């Protein structure tokens, strides 16, 4: 079982985006094969810049260990049984960055640009706030424009630009952009869940 004891928000919940019914729920260890199949269907450009190689079963096993330890919380977006994307919040209570969370979001390409990424980033952002994390960051390469647009629209600001810090699958290096947000200043009015 994943340790989701810190999550106060209720799951599952549903919405429709661009005519697609979408259900959000917390990831469980039993989702291992589903995540692997999702990763293997990603386009080359996404695979080039994966923060960790989610096509590798060993990486998914470590992810699942982190779910069980409560160090990673992942929200999955599904249409029926099909995985459309996920958003994760990573933190580590034994590091000096224990007050900082990191968000990662990855969607199926044909579902991008309809607001789903922003909803999912906001879900894990709200969980970070509930957990008492004080700062949330997102790492991206400078050409991951969707990621930058998504977090800018949530109020994140550039924190650092680190030259040649990312090595893509192609063996080339790219600049790493870190965007961050002070959660302590976060307002509930930024909640993007549709109101019913
Ligand atoms: C990053 C990602 C999750 C964004 O999800 P998305 O559903 O496409 O984004 P949204 O439609 O919610 O867009 C959110 C905002 O970003 C902007 N945006 C989205 N894609 C953009 C792009 N390519 N260029 C510029 N802005 C963009 C939108 O205009 C929107 O701004 P608004 O709220 O002010 O209108 C998605 O593109 C993705 O999975 N990319 C590949 C993986 C990746 O780069 N992950 C980032 C690591 S955290």
CATH fold topology of the domain at 13-134? Aminopeptidase
CATH architectural designation of the domain at 13-134: 3-Layer(aba) Sandwich
Strand content: 25-35%
Name the overall outline.
Answer: globular
Describe the structure concisely:
This protein has 196 residues and is α+β, with helices and mostly antiparallel strands. It is 27% helix and 33% strand. The protein has a domain at 13-134: 3-Layer(aba) Sandwich (Aminopeptidase).
List keywords for this structure.
196 residues, alpha+beta, Aminopeptidase, eight-stranded mixed sheet, 5 helices, binds coenzyme A
Overview of this protein structure:
This protein is of the alpha+beta class and 196 residues long. The chain has a domain at 13-134: Gcn5-related N-acetyltransferase (GNAT) (Aminopeptidase). The chain contains 5 helices and 8 strands; from the N terminus they run E-E-H-H-H-E-E-E-H-E-H-E-E. It has an 8-stranded mixed sheet with strand order 1-2-3-4-5-6-8-7, with helices on both faces. Residues 46, 104-107, 112-118, 138, 140, 144-147, 149-150, 153 line the site of coenzyme A.
Describe how the helices and strands are arranged.
Layout: E1 13-17, E2 20-26, H1 32-40, H2 44-48, H3 57-69, E3 72-79, E4 82-90, E5 100-107, H4 116-131, E6 135-141, H5 145-153, E7 157-167, E8 173-182
Parallel strand pairs: 5-6
Antiparallel strand pairs: 1-2, 2-3, 3-4, 4-5, 6-8, 7-8
Bound molecules: coenzyme A.
């Amino acid at each position: 079982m994943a340790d989701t004891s810190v999550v106060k928000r209720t799951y599952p919940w549903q919405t429709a985006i661009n005519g697609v019914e979408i259900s959000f729920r917390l990831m469980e260890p039993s989702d291992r094969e589903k995540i692997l199949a999702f990763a293997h269907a990603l386009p080359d450009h996404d695979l080039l810049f994966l923060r960790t190689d989610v096509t590798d079963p060993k990486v998914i096993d470590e992810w699942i260990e982190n779910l069980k330890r409560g160090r990673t919380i992942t929200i999955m977006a599904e249409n029926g049984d099909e995985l459309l994307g996920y958003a994760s919040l990573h933190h580590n209570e034994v590091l000096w960055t224990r007050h900082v969370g990191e968000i990662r979001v990855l969607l199926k390409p044909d579902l991008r640009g309809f607001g789903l990424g922003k909803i999912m980033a906001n879900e894990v952002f709200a969980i970070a706030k509930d957990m008492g994390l004080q700062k949330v960051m997102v790492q991206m390469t400078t050409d991951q424009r969707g990621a930058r647009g998504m977090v800018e629209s949530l109020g994140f600001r550039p924190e650092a630009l680190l030259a040649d810090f990312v090595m893509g699958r192609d063996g080339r290096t790219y600049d790493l952009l870190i965007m961050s947000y002070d959660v302590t200043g976060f307002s509930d009015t930024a909640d993007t869940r549709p109101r019913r």
